[in-house]
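Slack export, channel: ligand-projects

TW: morning all. Re-posting the request from yesterday since it got buried. We need the structure predicted with the small molecule present, not the apo form. The ligand is thiamine diphosphate; the SMILES is in the block with the sequence. No rush, but it would help planning for next week.
GE: picking it up
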Amino acid sequence: MNTAKKNPKHLVESFDLYAPKLVDKKEYFVGGHRACQGCGESLAIRLMCKALGPDTVITNATGCMEVISSNYPTTAWAVPWIHVAFPNSAAVGSGVEAGLKALRKKGKIADRRVKSVAIGGDGGTMDIGFQALSGAMERGHDMLYVCFDNEAYMNTGIQRSSGTPFLASTTTAPAGKAIPGNQVWKKNLAEIMVAHNVPYVATATPSYPIDFMNKVKKARAVNGPAYIHCFVACPTGWRSTSETCIKMGRLAMESGVFPIYEVEDGKYRMTVEPPAKRRPVSEYLKGQGRFRHLTPDQIQAIQERVDVEFEMLMIKINNSKSRAEIRAEQGK
Ligand SMILES: Cc1ncc(C[n+]2csc(CCOP(=O)(O)OP(=O)(O)O)c2C)c(N)n1
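GE: finished. pasting the full token output, ligand included:
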């Protein structure tokens, strides 16, 4: 007898039976690490590792995630993990991939597909590791790079990076009498990666965990370079309360500050649809002490910039075609 049909409550009561099918219960980034309360970055890494599974080698640039996860003699990593210098996560990740390929060719390791995944913060990726990342993507390595963007050099004390938003107060761009916070607009690294013509680029946030994990799985399956730009809240650096970590990612998406999309073979697709009427950016900014000094005019300037950037993205989403589609149209 189909009790679910007869009694919908049955479905809720049997949730435990269904939930494990959604997400792997195994943990490859385990508890006991020393991340701050409400850290979006450590949550995102936990989800990423679940989606990657055990056949993974992770290369980690210096930053918060290395510091909190590997205090001697302990480790939070249940997959092979290499800590490397601040600028060269992508370079070492591409070396791991080349090494695995060589060992497999010589028959020295089993013929299973082990994925090389390089990770870094926004400082380690968008600034100091940028050259290594660009080179790795250009050379076409079969690897995934994930940037965990908490919008400043958090590990060393909230210094601004090229991921820091316009007018956010940081320790090296403090809002005060001289300047009202960071003086330049945030670099759009996802778009720069699209310009590398790699097969897969996506933006994501742990506020939409299934979307993020699906993207990690998709990127893992790509036979070539893939890049995910993961937006992660940092209560310590953003001067926000720890329980707002998930809410911040949602507000960023719903206001258009951080749209969640993917670019597959050149074709853009919004994967988490923002509401028809986007929230004002002020709703996203107001819970964060790094923006507390902003005047209404400054908030308006940010709103206008977000509106323009969002429209630019929508034009790409509504009009782009994949390279395969264009080739087919050209009869090639
Ligand atoms: C060449 C070099 N410069 C500076 C540092 C000091 N340093 C270590 S971690 C870090 C900040 C990391 O910031 P980010 O990459 O944004 O990651 P987060 O800590 O925010 O996760 C800095 C400046 C270093 N280790 N090596």
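GE: first-pass observations. The beta strands are 56-61, 81-84, 115-121, 143-149, 200-204, 226-231, 261-264, 267-270. Residues 296-319 form the longest helix (24 residues).
TW: perfect, thank you
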